[in-house]
Structure to design on (356 residues):
């Protein structure tokens, strides 16, 4: 009797483990699991009969034969389920690997087709969601792209997809790109996401107020990033004063951001241009001594053969300080560059008049 009870318990564990174990296999595997359910129903029916207090030994022994038969049947179904699940597993992985190979070969349509086949076999296979979204971006397709991005659980992977999607839209649909960058900020590198949203808002959408707000959001994540102080200062210089403020107020505010950026300048590749913008802001405020200081710093650190903007600001500062002969040399250099030619010519006229 004890051995028989052990067999019954073992059979229950065996059947339950396959009924409630790993799911999401193909239809064939599901059918086999239904057979397990049928065996479990038979088992419970026999068990209930054997559990009656008035059962005789003869009746018990007869029912025991049913247990043995159920056990043998279950063992056969177990083997089939193992084969089925292994086959399904191998099939979806094989298709997935084929898709990856097509993707590496830049045959994105074939890769997409293979990845979709994977989802039909194993709908909970997480890795394929990322790959489908990735190839859809490469194909430049909208369709149900957002659906596949949203199915990606890993935050970093989702953020990278949103970054790729935004980057693919920045020229054709800048507003859409900003939307994806802002979503990216919820999952991955918010400082980068907000910075790029700000750049597009400034350069493509011409919305300086939005750009400023995004740069400031980025700064909250990386308060020692000179690039962000530079961007905020440059935006302030380019904005129209809001009600209650003057242009000089914005210039003074820009300088505070520029000088904070200079404080964290270590490793900043555009430090020469940051110095130039600081010099420009001081020149516009007629603070020529400070403008000259930063123009000199720009020329000292730059790797450019002719940093025209620095030469221009230095020339302007020297002119305002009544150092005409010195100013002329730097303005002449600035005039050789198309980006500063007009302004340099204007100040050269002033220098020439002052030096007569």
């Amino acid at each position: 009797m004890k051995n028989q009870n052990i067999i019954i318990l073992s059979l229950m564990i065996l059947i339950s483990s396959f009924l409630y174990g790993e799911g999401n296999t193909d239809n064939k595997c599901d059918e086999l699991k239904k057979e397990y359910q049928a065996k479990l129903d038979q088992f419970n029916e026999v068990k209930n009969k054997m559990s009656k207090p008035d059962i005789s030994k003869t009746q018990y022994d007869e029912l025991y034969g049913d247990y043995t038969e159920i056990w043998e049947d279950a063992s056969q179904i177990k083997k089939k389920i193992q084969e089925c699940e292994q086959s399904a597993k191998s099939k979806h992985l094989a298709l997935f690997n084929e898709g990856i190979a097509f993707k590496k070969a830049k045959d994105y349509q074939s890769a997409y087709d293979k990845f979709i086949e994977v989802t039909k076999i194993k709908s909970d296979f997480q890795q394929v969601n990322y790959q489908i979204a990735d190839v859809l971006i490469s194909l430049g397709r909208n369709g149900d792209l957002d659906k596949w991005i949203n199915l990606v659980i890993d935050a970093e992977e989702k953020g990278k997809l949103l970054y790729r999607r935004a980057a693919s839209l920045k020229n054709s649909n800048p507003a859409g790109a900003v939307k994806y960058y802002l979503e990216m900020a919820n999952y991955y590198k918010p400082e980068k996401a907000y910075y790029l949203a700000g750049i597009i808002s400034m350069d493509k959408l011409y919305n300086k107020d939005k750009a400023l707000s995004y740069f400031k959001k980025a700064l909250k994540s990386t308060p020692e990033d000179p690039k962000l102080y530079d961007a905020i200062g440059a935006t302030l210089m380019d904005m129209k004063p809001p009600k209650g403020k003057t242009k000089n107020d914005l210039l003074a505010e820009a300088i505070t951001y520029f000088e904070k950026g200079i404080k964290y300048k270590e490793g900043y590749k555009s430090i020469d241009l940051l110095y130039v913008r600081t010099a420009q802001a001081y020149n516009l405020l007629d603070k020529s001594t400070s403008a000259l200081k930063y123009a000199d710093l720009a020329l000292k650190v730059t790797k450019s053969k002719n940093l025209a903007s620095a030469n221009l600001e230095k020339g302007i500062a020297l002119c305002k300080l009544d150092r005409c002969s010195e100013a002329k040399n730097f303005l002449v250099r600035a005039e050789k560059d198309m980006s500063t030619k007009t302004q340099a010519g204007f100040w050269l006229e002033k220098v020439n008049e002052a030096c007569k």
The chain has 17 helices and no strands. The first helix runs from residue 2 to 19.
